[in-house]
Specification:
Length: about 400
């Protein structure tokens, strides 16, 4: 029974999961994360509730993190790692499903870096570092865009001259591994809602919404890049394109300064002037912190309604990711703005924060479901490499 290591590389953490695979089943044997920020850089292994089981100091060697992590994990497993799967944010127009990471694949994915400057290189660097250290180790890349590949053309078309679409400039949607994980769990938990019209809210340091019909993505708030849509931890979300022209022409910002402003210094951090962590903002007395939370909530609720418009109704609303899974107050604030659409929370269920959160008889069923992107990455890798037989 081989083990598979799934690496989920974000801008501030690497989450990982190790799975044993046999006869179509994946068994989780370890999960954890590396924390790069703050003075205490460390690697943690966690139980299924996120409780820390072991932790060790971590020496950040930049792009060489992945081989170190593979060795750290393998030293704690009973079976060697037969393959590694990676989350890569952007698959662009050419990759609509997971693929084996060849040199040619990596080259074409690197070209997409300007469309995901905080994420694309980080994901690809892990693949490359493992290729250098272990050339014979099979590696698979699984894309955040792939789950959205079935959108109607009208959903993904931008209002630009047609030639740009042929160059790959269209809406894609992201967080697809998370939405795939949640859709699969919802189908088991609540099949009648899962076959209907559902909006899933992935609210973490990156945040987006996905509209699903019968478990398949039909629209998303993120577009050509993971900058679009909701206000996020440090990203601005949807912005009048004229603002970008103004920042360039009047304020004189160049491309690198725009990336820094729009991806790293905006969102909750930029509006509050305090933090990108919603826990800090909810605890703060400052007006700016309250205004940042208000904007986050307003935009999330407004965009749920927008996606419900595209779906022509709403049967289910699912919260997931760091904020969606753990913050009853944010869920309550968003749902309060959606009462007109038939969203009625059960306050006690929302405080407990497990499973079904809606009141009995609520026209829209509300769920909290923990996302498991690492399991999806491992699933794609094991199927592609035939390790699941
Ligand atoms: P993710 O990107 O899914 O890992 O989510 C990270 C974000 O989740 C952090 O920036 C926090 O703002 C948020 N978060 C984590 N735990 C909590 C919590 N208990 N309450 C509210 N927000 C949380």
């Amino acid at each position: 029974m081989p083990s598979i290591l799934a690496l989920n590389t974000g801008s501030s953490t690497v989450k990982f999961g190790a799975f044993e695979t046999a006869r179509g089943a994946l068994t989780s044997v370890m999960r954890g994360r590396i924390e790069f920020h703050g003075p205490g850089r460390r690697v943690l292994s966690l139980d299924t509730d996120g409780v820390v089981l072991t932790e060790a100091p971590w020496v950040d060697r930049g792009r060489d993190t992945a081989p170190d992590l593979l060795r750290w994990v393998e030293a704690r497993l009973t079976r060697p790692v037969a393959a590694v799967g990676h989350r890569v944010v952007h698959g662009g127009p050419d990759f609509s499903q997971a693929v084996v990471a060849s040199e040619a694949v990596l080259d074409s994915l690197a070209v997409l870096t300007p469309l995901a400057p905080l994420h694309q290189q980080q994901g690809l660097a892990g693949v490359q570092a493992l290729r250098n250290a272990y050339p014979d180790l099979p590696q698979v890349v699984a894309f955040d865009t792939a789950f959205h590949g079935g959108h109607e053309p009208v959903v993904d078309r931008l209002g630009l001259p047609r030639g740009w679409e042929a160059k790959g400039l269209r809406r894609y949607g992201f967080h697809g591994l998370s939405y795939e994980s949640v859709a699969e769990q919802l189908a088991t938990l609540d099949p009648s809602t899962a076959t209907g019209r559902v909006v899933t809210a992935h609210l973490g340091s990156g945040a987006s919404l996905c509209a699903l019909r019968d478990g398949r993505s039909v629209d998303s708030t993120m577009g050509a890049t993971p900058l679009d849509g909701l206000v996020m931890g440090t990203r601005c979300g949807s912005l009048d394109p004229g603002v970008v022209l103004y920042l360039q022409q009047v304020a004189g910002l160049d491309a690198a300064e725009l990336v820094d402003l729009l991806y790293r210094r905006s969102g909750l951090l930029g509006i509050s002037g305090l933090s990108d962590d919603i826990r800090v903002l909810l605890e703060s007395d400052s007006l700016a912190a309250r205004e940042a939370v208000d904007l986050f909530v307003y935009r999330a609720a407004r965009e749920v309604a927008t996606l419900a418009g595209g779906l022509e109704g709403l049967d289910g609303l699912v919260f997931t990711a760091g904020i969606g899974e753990n913050s009853p107050r944010i869920r309550e604030k968003i749902c309060a703005r959606l009462a007109w659409l038939g969203v009625e929370l059960d306050p006690a269920a929302n405080s407990r924060g497990t499973g079904r959160l809606s009141a009995a008889g609520s026209p829209v069923t509300v769920w909290m479901i923990r996302t498991d992107e690492e399991r999806m990455i491992a699933r794609h890798a094991s199927r592609l490499l035939g390790l699941d037989r």
